[in-house]
């Protein structure tokens, strides 16, 4: 006996929520236990470098695929919301496929400075990351304007403002190589990925 369409959509939303939570946990544990890695300074993307880099690469790709599955699970509720979240998933996959360049002391042995020139893969990674962090507040804003989201509309509006603010603060911290750049990025990730998990679970519970 096969699954109904609604059951398939439920599975997609559940997968989206699960990978959103797993992404944050994996990056946190890996960052705190990685030799030479400083979570407060280094970005999550730097975890895709070095001998254990495969773990964060997989984290990006699996999370991206799961977020796309979750987005598909929202298609019946709101196609603009579904499409905006799918963009986040695609950009996460691209972030895993195109890793950043070594810099700022990581991996260990790398000069503690910012390169004057970047590789093509790093530029693609930067572009993918910008899409992720800009698409999140866009999706949150769309959710805030979507009746199907119900009581989560207010939460989505607050999350949109917080995500956009934190992304801006992180961007400035990253440009000046602040010792707290990684911390600001993690706060942005925590807000955005928590919102994804809540939307996937909350909308699923209402449907």
Q: Count structural domains.
A: 1
Order of helices and strands: HHHHHH
Main pleated sheet: none
Specify the structural class. mainly alpha
> Count of DSSP helices?
6
Radius of gyration: 17 Å
Percent strand: under 5%
- The shape, in one word, is globular
Secondary-structure map:
Blueprint: H1 5-33, H2 53-73, H3 79-97, H4 120-144, H5 152-175, H6 181-206
Provide a short characterization of the protein structure.
This protein is mostly helical and 207 residues long. Helix content is 70%, strand content 0%. Helix 3 runs antiparallel to helix 4.
Task: Please explain how this structure is put together.
70% of the residues lie in helices and 0% in strands. The chain has one domain. By secondary structure, it is an all-alpha fold. The relative contact order is 0.16. The model has no long low-confidence stretch (mean pLDDT 95). The protein has helices at residues 5-33, 53-73, 79-97, 120-144, 152-175, 181-206. Helix 1 (5-33) runs antiparallel to helix 2 (53-73) and helix 4 (120-144) packs antiparallel against helix 5 (152-175). The chain has six helices and no strands. It is globular.
Features:
transmembrane helix, globular, mainly alpha, 70% helix
